[in-house]
Amino acid sequence: MENYQEAIEWIHSRLKIGIKPGLSRMEWLMEKLGHPERRLRAVHIGGTNGKGSTVAYMRAVLQEAGYETGTFTSPYIEQFNERISINGRPISDEEITQLVKIVKPLAEELEATELGGPSEFEVITAMAIYYFAHVHPVDVVLFEVGLGGRLDSTNVIHPLLSIITTIGMDHMQYLGETLEEIAHEKAGIIKNGVAVISGVKQPQARAVILEKAKQVQASAYQAGEHFEGIWQQSLPAGESFDFTSVFSNMKDLRTGLNGLHQIENASVALMGLHYLRKFFAFLIEESHIRAGLQAAYWPGRMEQISDHPVVLLDGAHNEEGMRALVQSLQARYGNYRITALFAGLTDKPLDQMISLLNEAADSVLLTSFDFPRAAGREDLLPFLEKHQWVEQWPQWLDDIAAAEHRDEVFVITGSLYFISEVRKYAAAQS
Description:
Blueprint: H1 4-13, H2 24-32, E1 42-46, H3 51-64, E2 69-72, E3 84-86, E4 89-90, H4 93-111, H5 120-135, E5 140-144, E6 161-164, H6 172-175, H7 179-186, E7 196-198, H8 203-215, E8 220-222, E9 227-234, E10 239-245, E11 249-254, H9 261-280, H10 286-295, E12 303-306, E13 310-314, H11 319-332, E14 337-343, H12 350-360, E15 363-366, E16 388-389, H13 393-402, E17 408-414, H14 416-429
Parallel strand pairs: 1-5, 1-6, 2-5, 6-7, 7-8, 13-17, 14-15, 14-17, 15-16
Antiparallel strand pairs: 2-3, 3-4, 9-10, 10-11, 12-13
Helix pairs in contact: 1-4, 2-4, 3-9, 3-10, 4-5, 7-8, 11-12
């Protein structure tokens, strides 16, 4: 393993193994690495939607308070390295290469056992845990769950606090067919005696979360009961809201991210920060909270990449994400003509997502992109009676940038992998 390119190619070669739920391989790797997971001061963040935004808010506030903050997130939007970051800065190519040199021999050794070789995500998770434990220890690490919770690779950590943002019908082939079954998997990150913050809305899913917390004697703080964010208005950039909780009340807070659903994400993050302040002596002042929430940035979440015309990118990659996007478009751009370009993956509920998008957009266009699971023209054929097909989305993007569009908003949405491709292209053109 001589260079970064070889390291990345080896990591991605693990993709052929697929998704392998279970903790046995991670526990084997942690044992071989000397249990680096025991050295971390971490917050574990799971949920169907809102994980990335919640991470962004918490990281920004912790940075304002002077804490060096690590993050482990997925998928990446701009470059692979951003999955392991410190204070929002991706780790270096050299550090990725060194981590692979440490993990690769162990992966090969593990492959020879009855457990079988680790998946790509297990490899990256092990790299992140080792990095924050031994290579560059930080004050706190925000660990985003990859898939589910109970059997997710990240669930080998023992955090200061667990957070479950939302629960929705996604990844059902792995997590279950009902909200209760999915909630059970998400609740698997709740540890003995470790408090959990929940932004879950549905009564049946909420009941599962609270029951699991009760079983393991973990304090539970539930949105709508112990804390609440109350939307006030949409701003040119971000949203304004009031926050009330069992710990404090704050008026006229402002988010750096657009969308009504960002009030929920910011409130969950804020409750987590208050918990860290009260029970783990984090020195977080009101000024840090106000500045951090407003400074928070997370690409591909109602992100405006052009002013003339207004072009928004939003990775609404499942039904719940699309519903949140639709509500925000109706609230912020109700007086505009909205044109949406959608590209999704074949394992997502495309019919429900496109139907929802029609509620907010005057025109919905469909396209595809270069990705193994991307829905192509054939997959979207049933929708082409009512919707136009865009063969070359880069050309479409060039065309709208060159024309005059008054009182019109263009929204590019669907898979986060698609949003990543669009961002790269737009950046190259600017």
